[in-house]
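Q: How would the structure tokens look for this protein?
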Amino acid sequence: MKKLSIFFAAMLLAVVSGFSQATFKPSVGLSFNDFSETSTGDAKGKLGMQLGGSVAFGKKFYVEPGVFYATKSSEFTYSSSPSISTTEDALIKGIRVPVAVGVGVLGNEKSLASLRVFGGGSGFFVTGVGDALDKDNITSPTWGVFAGAGVDFWIMFAEASYEWSLTNVSKDVANIDFGKSRTLFFTVGFKF
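A: Here is the predicted structure in token form.
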């Protein structure tokens, strides 16, 4: 964890020295989580959330590190026998640290509205789980990549992004093997 903190601090310092303008972006959002595979049942995405912020460095081309408290939730149904089916909520809470690189494609900071696209990598550090899971059986951190688009209007913005994890969420959770997670994020916030 200490090495990761030093890495992000060094990266942030390099970015700050390379760009003259910083935009602070507090935001709140919704998420829908799913899994690429499960060994013994079906997983359906449920509503989760994220709350935090990011700092964008640059104008037309930008780098944007962020920190968010996030919940990823799925409804998992599995059969313990041919006649018995069990449904549980698979809730994972943690700190999401995305680092995006983006470009404005329509409009600019002087336009009433502008469109931008972005992508990057992220880490998800588990801080807790719901009653149906055991935190010790959840991989932390999980690493992922994401892509998305955003619309800026005046001092507000709205974004949609899709994230694919590169690491499995778990190896064995109560005899349930989750694969990689896939998460859809919708975020709104302000720019200062």
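The chain is about 10% helix and 65% strand.

The chain has a mean pLDDT of 81.

Upvote if useful.
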